[in-house]
Design goal:
The complex is a heterodimer of chains A (288) and B (425). Chain A is an all-alpha fold and 288 residues long. Chain A is 75% helix and 2% strand. A two-stranded antiparallel sheet of chain A has the order 1-2. In chain A, a hairpin with a 4-residue loop joins strand 1 and strand 2. Helices cover 46% and strands 12% of the residues of chain B. Chain B is built from 19 helices and twelve strands. In chain B, helix 15 crosses helix 16. Classes of the chains: A mainly alpha (288), B alpha/beta (425). At the A-B interface, helix 1 and helix 11 of A face helix 1, helix 3 and helix 18 of B.
């Protein structure tokens, strides 16, 4: 096509340059460091695969991987269910203002940064929940974030609350594209609302699942700031996610090389999961 | 043709933009002016330090000092490391323990000839001394142990002065606990089990004597024996039993600013750095109610607190000569000039780590007690600052939390902690 035109490359070069500088070069450097003993200043020794073999028996790392996986599953389900629910709600035939208002409100949490969200929810879980518990006498409201279970669900609630508005927007655009004639025809054929949803809307928004699942899954795996602000891995590192484990290894224990090896493994795992997920959901999409 | 010209124009613009973004602002303004950068971790005294710098700049118009403050909830050590990794090394920065000194040793200069090092109180330079060379100027003296609300003690009929042994302390706690309702207390203790550094400091009472109360010995130790582990267990069980719950999510601000300052608890484990925030909540708190009780570790009747310099100013020698000289001059001025000394005492409210200060002017009683105990040798050292990198936050703290929660036994705790200590050293 136009690959030989010089202007094509001129347009591309700034972008390529930026990507090379901030992604490709650090990536290659990172892989190199994962084979070394590195403290952030100088490389002490080249130790080959030692970092990786050591990783296999690092219980804390695999615990945090498992925790992250559990968190991802719970939040992917929660976000998509809630996001789709919101989308269905706001595409009902309200007046224009109500529907815009609700869309804005649902989307709003997404505009707040993760750290701040973490602190807001920390306040809710620790202070507001405790007061509710005191007033109602329901014990379930007490002691949030002080054990692994409530820490886990605290994180899930926070993340679902943050992401579902964003995912809602994606579903809205797909729901708006469902042809009106199809829905009318089904009404004439006597389909009720439930049937219309499962038999018509649901299959037609399947491509949205691919996108939403991909976004939520990869974001859930990469969560750091929410985790940091809400529980900071506590109690006893049991709510420490993989990213936090990597960060702590690098900056608290000062073993950059080992942390880099963890990061490489983490990247490989995320890539495999994402590719698998896209492959599976793609197969389920329906064309009109 | 026209299209190509437009394309060319855009590409050039982008290149120019990238080019200008990459070039750094070098040498702007006056050439004789020396620019220094200071990396500060003490957020509490950021304003005071700024004032100090402003005064110095006024007296020395050819010096410009930029202050960066990182700290509080943020991970200051990582931020400092990031500064170094990005070749944006500050001229003056704070060092936590000997492992920090060792890490930045290539950059640091020998401070022994400096005025502010010569006047430092005997032994306070030890925490920044490697192979006999001091690399840092002590920032101040900080001490910690049980901080108590004397008011509550007195109301419960316990004279804090009369507590002279571990047994007395336990009895005092039990007495106060029995009158919880009348005193309007939530609980006796508010130990913040959510903060890793509080746990780390608590552990120092029991590890310092093991290292003969020597910072260097702690730094060089290959292993931790927890010689005084059984006493540590007794103290831990005691506060866990009478603590505000859930202890594992009790954070610093709830423990100090809400419960302790609000008179809902009688005892917390903290140091004199809480005084400014206590004062900002209740002006008379520090002067009238605050007290400090020692811990009885080596001996049942001889109590000790932990006190000493916790931070050291290091000077970056990897800079041009003029700025190194200027950095030294600023440090000396800050700690030895009349203006500096007065500010350190009255504004920073520090316990001075240097001689020649009017120590009678130490504003509050707790700070005075800490200073006196340090002078009388009734103190242990900040052994927790010499633990292996990351040990307290990723090994000691999680295990301690597990014990507090009843998930593991004390034997498990000791075993895992010792093992991790040797492994991480």
């Amino acid at each position: 096509m136009t690959f030989k035109k010089s202007s094509y490359w001129m347009f591309l070069i700034p972008c390529l340059l930026a990507i090379t500088l901030v992604i490709i070069i650090p990536f290659i450097q990172g892989i190199y460091y994962s084979f070394t003993e590195y403290n952030g200043f100088q490389v002490a020794a080249f130790i080959g695969l030692d970092n990786y073999t050591r990783l296999i028996s690092d219980g804390q790392f695999w615990d945090s991987m498992l925790f992250t996986a559990g968190f991802s599953i719970a939040s992917v389900i929660g976000i998509n269910a809630l996001g789709l629910g919101f989308a269905l709600l706001v595409t009902q035939k309200f007046s224009k203002i109500t529907s815009t208002l609700f869309r804005t409100i649902y989307f709003m949490p997404n505009l707040i940064g993760g750290i701040i969200l973490g602190f807001i929810w920390q306040f809710i879980f620790l202070k507001a929940f405790a007061s509710i518990g005191e007033i109602t006498g329901i014990d379930a409201f007490n002691g949030w974030l002080s054990d692994t279970n409530t820490g886990f669900w605290g994180l899930v609630i926070l993340f679902v609350w943050q992401m579902s508005g964003y995912i809602m927007v994606i579903y809205i655009s797909f729901l708006n594209n469902v042809p009106e004639e199809l829905l009318e025809a089904s009404t004439i054929d006597g389909a009720n609302a439930w049937q219309k949803f499962w038999k018509i809307k649901f299959p037609l928004v399947a491509p949205a699942f691919t996108i939403s699942m991909f976004l939520t899954l990869s974001n859930a795996f990469k969560v750091y700031d929410q985790n940091m602000a809400l529980t900071a891995g506590g109690p006893f590192s049991s709510t420490e996610m993989a990213t936090m484990n990597i960060y702590n290894t690098a900056f608290k224990i000062q073993e950059m090389g080992y942390a880099q090896a963890k990061a490489v493994i983490f990247l490989v795992i995320i890539t495999i999961i994402s590719v698998l997920q896209i492959y599976i959901t793609r197969k389920r999409e329906v064309d009109l | 043709m026209k299209k190509r010209l437009i394309g060319l124009f855009f590409t050039l613009t982008v290149f120019l933009l990238i080019g200008s973004a990459c070039s750094t602002n070098t040498e702007s303004g006056n050439n004789d002016q020396v620019e220094l950068s200071i990396f500060n971790i003490k957020v509490e005294t950021k304003d005071q330090l700024e004032e100090m710098i402003a005064k110095y700049e006024e007296e020395n118009p050819d010096v410009k000092i930029n202050l960066t403050t990182v700290g509080g909830g943020q991970d200051a050590t990582s931020a400092l490391q990031a500064k170094f990794s990005s070749n944006d090394e500050p001229n003056i920065f704070l060092l936590g323990g000997l492992s920090d000194v060792a890490k930045y040793q290539d950059y640091l200069i020998d401070v022994s000839e400096m005025e502010s090092a010569k006047t430092a109180i005997d032994g306070t330079l030890e925490g920044a001394t490697l192979d006999g060379t001091p690399y840092g100027i002590p920032l101040n003296i900080e001490g910690y142990s049980w901080m108590i609300n004397k008011d509550i003690f007195n109301q419960a009929g316990v004279d804090p002065e009369s507590i002279g042994s571990y047994q007395d302390f336990v009895e005092a706690v039990e007495t106060i606990d029995s009158q919880k309702e009348e005193l309007g207390l939530e609980s006796v203790f508010a130990f913040s089990g959510k903060e890793d550094w509080v746990v780390s400091q608590f552990s120092s009472h029991f590890t310092s004597p093991e290292f003969n109360n020597s910072v260097i010995e702690a730094y060089e130790s290959e292993q931790l024996d927890l010689e005084y582990g059984s006493r540590m267990k007794e103290y831990t069980d005691l506060f866990n039993q009478y603590n505000a719950q859930p202890i594992l999510s009790l954070d610093y601000s709830t423990s100090v600013e809400e419960m302790f300052a609000g008179g809902q608890v009688a005892i917390i484990h903290q140091g004199n750095w809480i005084i400014p925030s206590l004062d900002s909540i209740d002006e008379s708190f520090a002067s009238e109610k605050l007290g400090i009780l020692p811990m009885y570790v080596e001996d049942d009747t001889e109590g000790k607190i932990i006190a000493g310099p916790s931070w050291f100013w290091g000077i970056n020698g990897d800079k041009d000569e003029a700025s190194v000289e200027e950095s030294k001059a600023f440090m000396d001025w800050m700690y030895t000039s009349d203006y500096g000394q007065e500010k350190i005492m009255s504004d920073f409210k520090y316990i001075p780590a240097h001689e020649g200060y009017d120590t009678d002017a130490i504003a509050d009683e707790v700070s005075k007690t800490i200073y006196e105990m340090l002078m009388n040798g009734e103190t242990g050292v900040w052994a927790n600052n010499q633990y292996p990198d990351g040990f307290f936050s990723t090994a000691l703290f999680p295990e301690f939390q597990k014990y507090l929660n009843g998930d593991i036994t004390w034997e498990d705790f000791e075993e895992v902690t010792k093992e991790n200590y040797s492994k991480m050293r």
